[in-house]
Amino acid sequence: MTLPPVPGTGATGATLQARRISAWFGDHKVLDRVSLTMPAGRVTALIGPSGCGKSTFLRILNRMHELVPTASLAGEVLVDGRDVYAAGQRLTEARRTIGMVFQKPNPFPAMSIYDNVTSGLKLTGTRLNGDAKDDLVEECLTKAGLWREVRDRLRQPGGALSGGQQQRLCIARSLAVRPKVLLMDEPCSALDPTSTRRIEETIRELAHEVTIVIVTHNMQQAARVSDSCAFFLAEQNTPGAIVEHGPTPAMFSAPSDPRTADYVEGRFG
Ligand SMILES: Nc1ncnc2c1ncn2[C@@H]1O[C@H](COP(=O)(O)OP(=O)(O)OP(=O)(O)O)[C@@H](O)[C@H]1O
What we know:
The chain is of the alpha/beta class. It has helices at residues 54-61, 91-97, 113-118, 130-143, 147-150, 163-175, 193-206, 219-225, 248-253, 258-264, and strands at residues 16-25, 28-38, 43-47, 71-79, 82-83, 98-101, 181-185, 211-215, 228-233, 241-247. A six-stranded mixed β-sheet has the order 6-7-8-3-9-10, with helices on both faces. It has a four-stranded antiparallel β-sheet with strand order 2-1-4-5, covered by helices on one side. It is globular, with a radius of gyration of 18 Å.
């Protein structure tokens, strides 16, 4: 499926392609030949019942799966055509290009808001002088929708913010290393409805410049924030696979597979 470019936005970000991804923990196969294209400058939602492999798939996209000692995988992940698992591709480069925001906000609690935002720069070997750093902090906090709330207390600890603010701080921290793709694993599940709305607005705003892939159990959220959806299912102890994917409105109003209809209408999962 090829979506047209987002009109008038100068959308950037990279196209992410997963090709025939299979995954195992030990000898337990949890994903079977999953292929999915996540178009540049768009939001793709991964939906499906618990345990069907959505988080595993997401973690494979930026090479976090390999952190689990028993984990293995097959297949390819291409960012604008380049395989992040190719020999010679550096792990740090994959993680810089493909950032991740987790379910539970995880800022460095004792570190200042300012230093939280710039904390990834060292890892990427980026050196900035004071003014450039200040500009970057303002830019990233603005994009994450947090600047106005924290501009007067940048030296206070990140841990002093509310949960929703901490999550937006984590988004700002991810943006500071200029990723092309941002992966989000249930980023609102620990947040109240107001903070959830705020993060959803941020996701829509960011989609103009980074490609976003979000795992969510909240069907209303998938409908609100995503351009396209992929429905994962692991039936009767078989590995997870994609049943159907396509533009979000069609997935919700006229899915082609009855299992998708049952899931999005809340009949199981
Ligand atoms: N670290 C691990 N070690 C062993 N098995 C794992 C590990 N992480 C996940 N699994 C297994 O892999 C399968 C897929 O899990 P995964 O977390 O990817 O599913 P999910 O769809 O994201 O679930 P949820 O929606 O509940 O987060 C499950 O059977 C799970 O038990």
